[in-house]
Amino acid sequence: MERAKEKRREKGKEPEKEKMRGKGKEKEKRKEVEKKKSKEKVKEKEKEKEEKRSKEEEKRKEQETEKEQFKGKEKKEKDNNSILTKPPLEPREKNKQILVLGLDGAGKTSVLHSLALNRVQHSVAPTHGFNAVCINTEDSQMEFLEIGGSEPFRSYWEMYLSRGLLLVFVVDSADHNRLPEAKEHLHRLIGTNPILPLVVFANKQDLEAAYRITDIHEALALSEVGNDRKVFLFGTQVTENGSEIPSAMQDARDLIAHLAADVQ
User: Fold this and answer.
1) Which fold has domain 97-263?
2) What is the pTM assigned to this prediction?
C-alpha cells in the first residue's frame, strides 16, 4: 500500500519537474537571444565608429588636398605676378616705373593685371611685397611697380615715389571707413613732389555701397592736390573674370601711356 502511494506521488511530481525543466530551457534560450542581441549591438556600434573614423579621415584628406591646391594656386599666381618679397636695394634711376599704390584690399593687383591683359583678371592673394608688370602699347612699353598696401610695406612708398614717372593710386570706393586713411597717405605722398602726375582709380564701382566719383573726389580732397599737377579720376571695376575690361579702364590705360611718354 505504502509503495503504491509513493509511486503515485512520484508520478504526480514528474509533470512539475518537466515544467521546471521547460522553464529553465526557455530562460536559457532568452539569455542566449539577449546575449546575441547584445553582441550585435556592440558590432553595430563598432561599425558606426569605424564609419565615422573613415568619414573623418576622408574629410581630413579632402581638406589637405584643398590646402595643397590653394597653395599651388597662390604660388602660381605669385610667380605669374612677378612678386618680389624683398625690394631691390635702390629704386632704378633709368627706365623709371609707374607706381601703383593704395591701401591693402583696394584691388591694385586685379586692376593692374586687368590693364596688362586687357581682360578682367581677379587676384586671390594680397601683394606681400613688390609686383612688377610690363604693359605693351602700340608705341612703347610701360613698366608698373605695385607695392603692397599693408603697413609693413608703406615705408617703401616714398622711397620709390621720388623716382617714379607718375602715381596711380587705387582706393576701394565701398570701404567708406578707410577713405580718410587713404586720403591721409595720398596727400603725404604727393606733398613731396608738387608736379608728379596723379591718376586715381575709384575701384569697385560695381558694389552697391560704392561712393560715386564725385563723392570720392570730395573724400580724397583732390581739389587740394595742387594747381600745377595733372590729376585724373577714373571709376573702375573688375567684375566677371576673363571678360573684356570696361571702356573706362581702357581709357585710363591710354591716358597713363600718354602721361608716361610726356614725362620721359
Assistant:
1) Rossmann fold (3.40.50)
2) 0.64
